[in-house]
Structure formats: C-alpha cells, structure tokens
Amino acid sequence: MPRIAQSVIDEVRQLNIVDIVSPYTEELKKVDGKLWAICPLPNHLEKTPSFFVDEQKGFFYCFGCHEGGNGITFIQKCKGLDFAETVIHLCEQFGIDIKYDVEKGSQF
Questions:
Q1: Model pTM?
Q2: Phi/psi at 97 (nearest 5 deg)?
Q3: Beta bridge partners of 62
Q4: In whole angstroms, what is the distance from residue 82 CA to residue 103 CA?
Q5: First CA to last CA across the chain, in angstroms?
Q6: How far apart are CA 24 and CA 11, in angstroms?
C-alpha cells in the first residue's frame, strides 16, 4: 500500500483538536479558560470531568485514565484504528484530499 503523503499528514495534524474531540464528548465546558469533559475514551467510566483539552497546544489528557495525545492519537484510542486508518478517517471527516507518495520504481 502506498504511503500517505507527508503534506496530508501535516494538514491533519493542524486540525483543531476541539473539532476532533467534540463529537465524542457530551459537552466540553470551559473552566478558568480550560476545556473539560467527562472522559469519552473506551473502558473509562467516570462521573466527574477529568478529561482536559488544550486547544492552543492541540492535545488532550485525562487525569483519570492517564491517556493523552493529539487529535490523531485521540481517534486511534476511541476507534481502535492504526495511524494510517486514522489519518484517512480524519481526511474523510474534514474533507481533506488524500494524496499518496509515489516511491521510486513503482508505477501507478
């Protein structure tokens, strides 16, 4: 399988993490300028918000289950996808054209 072009991966990494995470959370609430929610990750059932999203830095962290990362890792953890599947999923969700690198010697 050809590799997804680095420019596409870079574009996916630039997506706003709030736009990626919001569909999976009941509600992101702003408290003292920071975004909090009940953790949406599988296998973490909780009743109080411990899931933190830093929109400026583009990462999330859950103080309950100790999982964290960027938008790509969030989708990987939520959906159980590998890196390439996650990038393709986010491209489809956000309307990004998927381009592939052509390796020397291969024909398309």
A1: 0.88
A2: -65, 130
A3: 51
A4: 22
A5: 11
A6: 21
Q: Which domains does the chain have, with CATH numbers?
A: 6-94 (3.90.580.10)
CA distance 11 to 8: 5
**Count of other CB atoms within 10 angstroms of residue 106:** 8
CA 80, chain centre distance (Å): 12
Q: Give me the amino acid identity at 83.
A: F
**Token pair in block for residue 20:** 């990626």
Partnered with residue 52 across adjacent β-strands are 36, 61
Residue 54 β-bridge partners: 59
7-46 pLDDT, tens digit per residue, is 999 999 999 999 999 999 988 999 988 899 999 999 888 8
